[in-house]
Each structure stands twice: as structure tokens, then as C-alpha cells.
Amino acid sequence: xxxxxxxxxxxxxxxxxxxxxxxxxxxxxxxxxxxxxxxxxxxxxxxxxxxxxxxxxxxxxxxxxxxxxxxxxxxxxxxxxxxxxxxxxxxxxxxxxxxxxxxxxxxxxxxxxxxxxxxxxxxxxxxxxxxxxxxxxxxxxxxxxxxxxxxxxxxxxxxxxxxxxxxxxxxxxxxx
Length: 176
Known about the structure:
Layout: E1 21-28, H1 33-47, H2 54-75, E2 81-89, E3 92-99, H3 119-129, E4 133-138, E5 144-151
Antiparallel strand pairs: 1-2, 2-3, 3-5, 4-5
Helix pairs in contact: 1-2, 2-3
């Protein structure tokens, strides 16, 4: 008879919250992947009951849209498929988009007359205002990953803020 003792944590053992985890999916480098990726991330956050404020949720979804749009528009020629990852830890949510294009973009200020070119600047601004971090890193296979980690306000974190492109496990950054 199982008395449930095996389900109890050991003293001092950190038990992940039910909503913690990492989810990855691939998407074709097509315009239709932008709303599909945004909806997939939103649905995962809702289904897993992640304690995320609506304002932060909207910021995360905008970041996903911008990163996937950039991968589709600027990397699609060399990367017919992109990788999207959502990682949630107690206190943090992280989104990452990986493609096979080696170009490492920079957040540029666009002229007032231009209708585009502000995507990464927007990602950096949303991330910074939320108290998070974002970066771009080359991957071992010659592509890149762009990621943003934002704190879940009001949720006690048992893990430090993610500050490296490989947190927690995917994608692997190229050695420096």
C-alpha cells in the first residue's frame, strides 16, 4: 500500500510550482506563424495557470510577436523553420526565438518617417520596464537565439533571474 510518502518532498528540497516548465515548438518561417506562436504562448500560460498580471502577459505576447516577425522577415531565407520556447520558473517567464541566420541584429532607433524597424527596440523597452533582461546570442550551429526574461511580479522566486541565453536548457549558446 502506498501511503503517499514517496510523493512528499525531502526536507530542504525545492519543489517546482505546478506551472513551472519549458515548452518548445517549431514553426515555419511564414507570416502565419506570428499569430499562431502568440496564441500558443498565451494558451500555455493560461492552461498552466501561470500567475502573470495582464499587463505583463500583453508585454510577453508582444515580445513573441516581434521576435517571430523578425525571424520570419529577416532570417526566413536561411531558416525555413524557427524555434520558439517558453520557460516559466517561480518568479520568471522567458521567451526565446531561434533561427539559423547568423546575423545578430541590434535594436536601432528608426526614423519617424519609417513604419518599421523598431521591433527589437520595443522588445528591449518592454523587458527593461518590466525589470527583466534580454539578449541575442549565437548558437552552436551558427544561428542565433533572441530571448527575453521578465519577472512575474508578486511571485516569490526560488531561482535567480535568468541571465544567460541557455537558461534553463535550450537553445545552447555558442561557446565564447
